[in-house]
Amino acid sequence: MDLFLSYAGNSIEFHEIDVPLLKNFAAYIEFKKKRAKRTVVNYMICIRAIYNLALVANKADRNDYPFGKGKYQIKIPDAKKIGLTIEELKKLENAKDLNEANQHVLSVWLLSLFFRSTDNRYYSIKMDRLKGLPIILSDEEK
């Protein structure tokens, strides 16, 4: 938020935060500071969150709210997804000669990936993938 306050002034009040200011600040971040569009979005989400907190605390007036339909709308840009390929995941899954600590970390990481995966090609969990992974049961489950 230091960047916003240095741009808009440390003594800025909520009613002074309007659509033109937000648009100019977004352009400033992107073109003068040479930051990515996602960075601009992150700043705007933060400003909006602080503004919303001010509304709840009755420190700002709802009529001055600069976000929403017909006002400043935060548009999240398409993200460039960077990740491992299926082949790379299979290499990790079949890695050999790892020490016990590295094998444990890899097993836990793969398990968390399998449980949260949205990639249907790699979603199925087979019990043999879990072999060697210590499972701790509570007294009630034993």
From TrEMBL:
GO MF annotation list: DNA binding
Gene3D superfamilies, alphabetized: 1.10.150.130
A Pfam family that the UniProt record links to this protein: Phage_int_SAM_5
Source domain of life: Bacteria
Keyword entries, A-Z: DNA-binding
Domain Phage integrase SAM-like stretches: 7-71
Name assigned to this protein: Phage integrase SAM-like domain-containing protein
Regions that span the bilayer: none
Signal peptide: none
